[in-house]
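Below is how a single chain appears once it has passed through the pipeline. First comes the sequence as given, then the structure the pipeline wrote out for it. We keep one example in the README because the format questions we get most often are answered faster by looking than by reading.
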Amino acid sequence: MSRVRAAVLAAGLALLAVSGCGSRSGVLAAGNSASPGPVAADPANATYRVEGARVTLRGGTAERPAAPGAAESVQTRLFGTPVWGDLDGDGEDDAAVLLLHLSGGSGSFYYVAAALRRGEGFDGTNAVLLGDRVAPQSLQVRNGMLMAHYAERRPVEPMTAVPREAKTKVLTWRAGELVESPPVDKGMLLTEGWVTIGHEVRAFEPCGRNGEVWLDPASEGFAAIRDAYAAALPPDARPYTPVFMTLTGRLAAAPRDGFGMDYAASFGDARLVQVWSRGNCRADEVSLTTPLAGSVVRSPLKVRGRAPGTWFFEGDFPVHLKDRKGRIVGSGVARASGPWMTRERVPFEAELHFAASPQPVRGTLVLVKDNPTDDRSLDDAVEFPLFYR
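Resulting structure:
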């Protein structure tokens, strides 16, 4: 069985499971509305905006007659299971969902939407079209981006052909709705990492790469990156404070002259996709609520966030503060704030004490997976740049 066919089969089985839950059908309300509706108990009962209409699910399904007195119906169904992550920057996990919209004809239209957490409930968003009879594969939420991975047919192929061409849509939450980012051009990279801009410095440290590259200021999108960098800095920001961003661009050779010649490579044709003050290279696993990366901290340092239950041993894991040379200047223990015997993400809290410095010092906060075994392949850690004094 091909990978695409396997994805379609798995998604179809998930749909059957969802569409059979609950005894009441939801209502597909006519008309347009910028307000999705009342807060729901969960994403399967939230109100979304599909094709301009308010759609309120009940147990994952909404249905209404296609026309007055018609036997055919218009249906909207939750497709698969929600994927969780913070989309609106409030530190709480929201739900990303796939919706299958059947309008009574031969089309099967797939949409991606979100249910934003509002207190104890969820608020549905607008739905963004993926396509007719495409093959949904997965959703991913990380660093404020919702990424929908799916397959579609090539333009020359008939609708009866199996979708095989891999596609990804990247959505962000802006001005009260999900907005689709421009597609990534062929040969371009969609890359997350730390941006630092200052006197003689235009640096980008992509995730997965050891070291910074020159962020080409000649890029058409550099002005937007520079402005977003300035807007994201904490009020007490020190010079050369790193800010986490997602960019598109191309890796190339470093310039032969100027400030960029000291870098191993350059990142050109750069454009901003997202700036995320709480971001990091492992955000789908480990997130930090406080302190913000790049901020100036003092002792005692309160640390809060979420990490997979597999990071804890007996309910805790180590946390270190290191100086620029990698020496530990403060340590503490992150303790789970809830049940930790799970693979899901668990809230934690820690407190670190360290000697005061007369001036802010560049350092790194390191969250360390607790590994009680002798298997070093199970070691793991996530780092956050900051300043301490």
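The longest strand covers residues 73-85.

See the next section for the split statistics.
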